[in-house]
Amino acid sequence: MKHNIFFFNDKVCLCGDSLPHNDHSHFLLQIVLIEVEETKDLLLEIIPPCQQHNMNLDSGRYFTMLLDPLSYIGKSTLSSAKEIPKHIMIDDLKLLNLFDDINDSINYSKASVISNKLINTINKKATHFFSLDKRIKRTLRYLYSLDSYNISSRDIHKIACLSESHFNSLFKKNVGISLSRFLLWLKLYRSVISILSGNDFTYAAHSGGFVDSSHFAKTFKSNTGLPLSSLFKNQRMVQVHTK
Description:
Jelly Rolls, 10 helices, two-stranded antiparallel sheet, 8 strands, six-stranded mixed sheet, Arc Repressor Mutant, subunit A, alpha+beta
């Protein structure tokens, strides 16, 4: 089965036959669902942000989802992973037969349905309400609105009205990573969006603030475990879907 990548407004989904990923870590929360080819058993992993991991299965199909850990769904999923035994989630997921629709005919609409069923099943017993510190919320809104990330940390501290030490501590407590690591993720996101808009790797790299395409590609691989070119240039093996 060809590998498929679906870019939604609030998540990224990947599916296909098992695809090796080198050791890596990233800011996003990852849900991995695997169907073992021989037994049809389901394997489920919910990988917290910034946790080193890889995926090396010899056979089977997978469906994986990347979520913003700062979103309500992301926080609920992390909470559910801590509170609900994994085997209970798997038993509920088996009833949905999600892999019946994970095949060469999968499209944007089907991937959306599968991802929503997966999220709803994992979080159906979630009862927690989550919120960010209002100063960090204000800072994040500002960062998301920027046209360029060539900004000093001092200017960002002023947006939050906090000293450098207090801001750094509060930001990492709320977001889970340092400000510099978070800005790197915003740069990667902007460069990927540029590629999806039809631009070449060099233009996309500059769009995100990287020195060149080599720097962009190296950063992408270290944060996803996959070569940039294998996802966006090898259309015989990988299909990218956007809306």
